[in-house]
Amino acid sequence: MRTGELLAARRVDGARQRFTRARDFGYSKSAEESLALWGHDEVLDDVVRAVRTVRPHVMITRFGPTDRTHGHHVASAVLAEEAFHLAGRADYVTEGLDPWQPARLLRNQSHWRIDETTDTSGWLSVDVGGYSPLLGRSYGELAAASRTMHKSQGFGSAPAVGPQPEYLSAVAGDVPAPGNDPFDGLALALSEAPGARALDRTLAKAIRRFDPAEPEQILPLLATAHAQLGELSEHGWAADKRAELEAVMAGCAGLWLTARAPHPAVVPGAPVEVALEALVRTDAPVELLGVVVGATELAVGEPLAAHAPWTASPAVPTAELPLTVPHWLRQPPGATLYTVPEGDGRTRADTAPSLQATFALRVAGAELSLAVPVTHAWTDPVEGERQHPVEVLPPVTASFGQRARLVPAGATVTVPVVVRASHVPADTELKGVLHLSGPPGSTLARDELPFVLTGEQPEQTLAVEVTTGQEAGPLAAEVAVGGARSSYARAMVDHRHLPRRTVLQPATTELVPVALDRGGVDRVGYLPGSGDTVPDALRDLGYRVDPVSLDTVRDGGLAAFPVVLVGIRAFNTVPALLEAEEALHAYVAGGGRLVVQYQTSNRWRDLGELGPQPFHISRDRVTDETAELSPVDPSHGVLTGPNRLEAADMDGWVQERGLYFADRWHGDYQPVFRANDPGEEPLEGSLLVLPHGEGTYIYTGLSFFRQLPAGVPGAARLLANLLAHEASAPGATDGTDAAPAEGADE
Length: 746
Hints:
- The protein is an alpha+beta fold.
- About 20% of the residues lie in helices and about 30% in strands.
- A hairpin with a 4-residue loop joins strand 4 and strand 5.
- Helix 3 (about 40-55) packs across helix 4 and helix 7 packs antiparallel against helix 8.
- The two termini are about 50 Å apart.
């Protein structure tokens, strides 16, 4: 989804996206940690490849190498400076790419760090608030529309109009004097490229003669430019400029090229009928030479008359087409790096469509090659026409929905698996068998489940009954249809601002038996936050989990629950919950147990002091998932019952220990753990327990929302203890080692 949002932003602003193989493995406190986990040399090589591919004159970083912020961000600045110096060296070899030395490296200074006292006289400046009459909007408006594509990050932006100065400081290279434009002194005109003066003159003439009412009139000039550009193939930018020029020529000719399939997916081996159409909507001289779709070649050799569509519907074989999988997911990724093909695939932003049609045309004498993806189109009653690139998928997929499931050891559980046909021809049935295998020591009630799918009912949910043993392992599904077998799960990314994308993954779910005592707690009220799968994990462990609404809190309905668990960021996503906090405290005072998972407090919205007794949430966190969770008091009830926790319960955690710890609290709170990242002071705010009235209030920044979906049994045992815990009277832990809140009674 994040890849799609970046590409959606690029479709708005016209920039070109590149990636390294580095994975976002979670919050990192330093560039040193990030580079060590990624592999410094591997990611640096990707950045050098990107520089040599794009061949920029100016490189700009957003962060500095000594900033104190997310380690991934700081690492980007470190890698940029190293790549700047390395990309131009002939002794540094990247396959298929020549050295390229950018002229200068600059840093864009953040407005967050600039106020009326900041001395900007030593920096370059540029006004990015200009207005483009060709676009009909300012660049600030364009930027806001682009940034708003990052919807999953809450990055919706209002447009900025009028002057908007940006400041850039020198990092390396030949930098102009302060105050000047960052491009001053650079030979950027096309006429200054060796051998390109004639091309420059031709394009200048075309621009002067361009008439938007008759754009086809400049096609002969553009055809001449196309030929001149062909003589400059040794320049690294020539291929990009040719693609841009051919797109302009297609636009001036009013070309309409489509390739449509009747269904959104095809199955390898079954031919697909592709409806091809070529239409020229001006009087431009255009000849259709031929079309290639997959392995099918059509020789045409016909002139296209204005408004007279050429059509064809070849049956295209699919047997040799690979399954549609993003190139960075074709091989299982490592913990911190994606596994991608060598060459251009190393930094390419997206995967080419599985099936596309390439139209060969002669436009005003110039031979063009224009490719369009084969798409399936349908009409949404609200959105209008939507399109989906045709995907090549296995006949049937089997999806468990969760990558891991915590289940009681020795229990018999039912795991649902969804079998779905990629395409069922009309008036036919697709019959198959789901073959299953379980972890060592487990027993399946049935290891073969038959299914029948039709066009009207292409999906069926099957119930897999398994009795767990003591060992964790995969519950795997293999689909047998028509003598062929495959083992894929499917997930669909489908949001209005993104193209639809199917992601294929192995058809498995990890079953993790856990020895768990729920301490008599069978029912949990869950007050949802920003969305996580903790409730699903609790249900797998045998809890009844009921959603709790804000109205239930306000109306005193929490008394029906022995324990209420508050979801991550609930106070952020439901601001009115802060106003109802007294009702939460009354529930605790009356004998309830309230467990609050992490909430965020930041410069934009500080939640202030929370809890029946005050505590304050900071941005403190422990990102090392192997950091020791050392008990403040080893005899604390959270550690001893109903599940006695051992050191092994803290093993196997993923991504982090926790985040948004408390940094100060009233002395009646009992901190449970000390933990710290390497080189930092221990923190005690990851888990606080407060006796209040007849009940218990708990705040925890420990990342249960990550651990439970990942199948970490120790995290499940610890959470079970929190849900069952009845705090001792105040003073059992006096809190004197903690930082009390201002005005707190110590």
